[in-house]
Amino acid sequence: MKTAADEQYGRWIGASSTPLIPKPSLNGVPYFPDYRNWKVVSTTDRFDNGTLRIIFGNDVAVRAIAEHRINPWPDGTVFAKAAWNQQVEPNGDAKAGPFYQVEFMVKDSRKYGETKGWGYARWRGADLKPYGKDEHFANECVGCHTPVRHNDYVYTFPLAGQK
Known about the structure:
This protein starts with a helix and ends in an 18-residue tail after the last helix. The chain has 163 residues and is α+β, with helices and mostly antiparallel strands.
């Protein structure tokens, strides 16, 4: 049985070439409307908040993966993490439910030196509302990513066989 979340996901997958362009992030990190065309570099789930995620990498990230240069990631690397609320079927299968958010991590060691070399941005909901109360919201991101500082502040490793 097709649900409203299924229909929303279908619209997300088949989005037109003129996607919604949201307001800028409060700290100036840009929104990358073409991220859906980037290569999928990994997937993950968050049991703590019930989301399923696809991580996309731009050309710089994909080249770094192919060349095994991921610690540190080169400047110019951009990751997009699209997240959906997890929807559990009566039989126990989990699938993507309603769209939750999209986040970006942009590597620029100089520009984002105060946030450990990464610019962070997040837009919530289908209307892509910028996250945070002011430009300092990225400190929350750095705090969360500090446990993986030895992996250049990146939690998710590329899927095996990425080239």
